[in-house]
## 1
Amino acid sequence: MTSFTSSPSPVQGLAYASFFSTKVFPPAPDVYLVDVNAGPPGCLTPWTAVSADTSAVQLSPAAGRGRGQVELFIPGNSGAARSTVVLIAGQAATIAQAGR
């Protein structure tokens, strides 16, 4: 089972996908950390982190095993509003960012 928390933290118990799908980020750059819990302690289940549009959201690292953390960097947006899908450990979320 995979679960997520993010920082800044969403409301307790709110899933990472729900948090990102209900938020439109401002055009300023922002960074979020997502904890990946890909199994019980000691589990080495492999996972990946992929952004459909790396100009809108950059993820690091691109892969891991077991528990880990992924940084989502949302660069500043000087154009029109944009959104992209990120997939972390099989869980998809849409990241939306306002334009200037």
## 2
Amino acid sequence: MFPKARLRFQELVNQRGAQLRSLSLEELEQVGLQPTEHITVESRPSTISILVQPQADGSLRVVVQGFMEAKHLPGKHVAIDGFYKHPDGRITAMDPEEFYEFD
């Protein structure tokens, strides 16, 4: 069972991803230039970054990557969401294996 703070943090990352899915390619390119967001989730320091990576086919791979300090042990918890936005407006999911690139 996930602790409440970790679930809340994953929800925040998923919300950012949902908001980004509604943007155009041009808007997403601008979002990728934003700095890392520093937040606190239930007293734990956390960060959320948005990575926007152009692909050879003209689509963008968009990854929302979050790190939250662990409570009792050294280290961080990772929360991640991601998708591809295509030039025709379609959105496709990233393969789960792709997320390992961002841990």
